[in-house]
Sequence to fold (412 residues):
Amino acid sequence: MALLKTLGINGRRLNQSIDDLAQIGQLENGGIRRLAFSTEDLQGRELVRRWMVEAGLSVCIDTAGNLIGRRPGRIKAAAIATGSHIDTVPCGGKFDGNLGVLAGIEVARTLQENDITLDHPFEVIVFADEEDTMIGSRAMAGTASLDAAGYHRKDGRPMDACIDGAGGNWEELSLSARTRDDICAFVELHVEQGGILETAQKQIGVVQGIVGMQRYQIHIKGRPNHAGTTPMDYRQDALVAAAQVVLTVNRLGKRPPGHQVATVGALQVWPNADNIVPGQVQCSLDVRDLNQDVINDLINDFKEELILIARETGTTIELVPQLDVAPSPAADHIQSIIAEVSDRFGLSHMPMPSRAGHDALEMGRFTDMGMIFVPSEGGFSHSEVEYTTPEECVNGANVLLETVLRLDRYYQ
Ligand SMILES: [Zn+2]
Fold:
């Protein structure tokens, strides 16, 4: 049997690319400010475009402003794609998103210099505006709203002008939608942005999926009254009801066997005065889990508890839906391949959900999706102290490369 030489990416070159891209939009504190569609973002995209061309990719920008580099395959088939984003939060790190894009380009460079043509076309995608609206991946998944006025970007710039300025075409946004016939698998390498891998001392996170989320407003109505003259038995205290609501949410979030999270993060009290029994409270509810059934069960049980709390406190409680994002599970076979590839490289790994949103969430709506996580030192991200070691970046990129090669053989 012939001994197969293991293909590997050029780690020095990958880390140099990470440092070079980080020069664009670098702040004095070392953080990166490359807001989507800003001058810095467009400069960064231009540099990445040049690297794509040098890596032998043919480059285009779709109508949503996604920058796509493509290496042709041997057969007429759907592409195997990777990618992420290079836009940042107002003071972000140089790894969030950037690592996934630059590792994808490094995979393309490696294929090019080893003269390897995959059966399937291979794509590296820089998604437009991940941090604010996720317009790029949503348009690709066909889930973006076509109403430009419906997007309220944090910088206030109109969405259609932003997309057109990045080389897209807002009027034709729907043309950027892809299907499983265009892309048979999408794999994104990303820094974990949390401290689970570091704590568990694992090198690779095999992402099981991206959690779904439901958000509600809870309206509690009691009766405002004099805090001195109203006996305790006669009160309809909305804040007392709210206190029970908060504790109930926390108890449901902690109940076994899931890893669901449930949070009341905002609370307003009326009339909010020292000497008045609170008449009204409005608070928030945020529930997340990888499993839609777990979210639904939690909400149903919560509704039953609300009836009891309302009865006991003499209040009325209304649950008003605000946001419902379904979980996006990773394909089982991609998870298995990432785990096998990690073993092959002697890298320790563990399965884990992604509790942050990523472009892969939308890609998973229409095709097989997988994500590779590498550790974030101290669990920090969206911050200038975000750090992943050069070795861990190389580990992630090598796992990405080998995963792409195996997926090329998987889809036959
Ligand atoms: Zn990101």
